[in-house]
Fold this sequence. Notes:
The chain is of the alpha/beta class. The protein has twelve helices and eight strands. It has three domains: 2-167, P-loop containing nucleotide triphosphate hydrolases (Rossmann fold, 3-Layer(aba) Sandwich); 174-202; 219-271, no CATH class. The chain is globular.
Amino acid sequence: MDDVKDIVxxxxxxxxxxxxxxxxxxxxxxxxxxxxxxxSSGKRVARLASTGxxxxxxxxxxxxxxxxxGIAESIADLEVRKKLEITKxxxxxxxAMDVIxxxxxxxxxATLFDMLRLRLLQAxxxxxxxxxxxxxxxxxxxxxxxxxxxxFESESWQRCAFETLTLTRVYRTRDTAFITLLHAVRFAQxxxxxxxxxxxxxxxxxxxxxxxxFLFGKxxxxxxxxxxxxxxxxxxxxxxxxxxxxxxxxxxxxEVARFLDEARTPEVLELKIGVP
Length: 276
């Protein structure tokens, strides 16, 4: 609760805040509590994230949608796509906010963060930013290949002068040995003892792998594997059509479609009796 009060006080003072820490330390919970506290006091809060999935989980919208960036990937690209100038609608939208929250900041590239700051300057934004995430987890989402620059590597990040709050207490498990292992992996500081712990987790595959959980690098590979197991079963195929219920009425049809695409939700789910 003290963290919530401290963060809200900083945001009230127009101080930008960066909440970070490893997995399971309560970043999302703290962020939601801060948002609730801000909104309870009458502040207008924008809940944003770089992907449709993350934005929906936060109960908000994507950065590109809120700031009207289209599919541009840089300020120069905004100019090419005739989106460099801010519209009156977006100007009013940004200027009306007291706090702008950006979740999963590690997935925001340096060029995207530069575009966000451009919009803030264009709208003469007078509120505060609350950015949340862990730069040692998911990297920025960009097209193509090549070196990816994180948001904190941009000049815009430096100009925002964030005050950083690093959360360290892990809530998801009480296994101290496992927490130590995760910490070592996170910072690439693996000792021989850590490698031994990982080796001890390796088990031989059973002769029947139907009940074994497989992890794949691509969704297509997972789909092929699941289809192979399904086809190997006898019996009729039962088909279930997906029904979409939108609880957040402010979401646009495009944002809902993007969320469903990122969630990899099939339009029709096919099952058989006995499927693992």
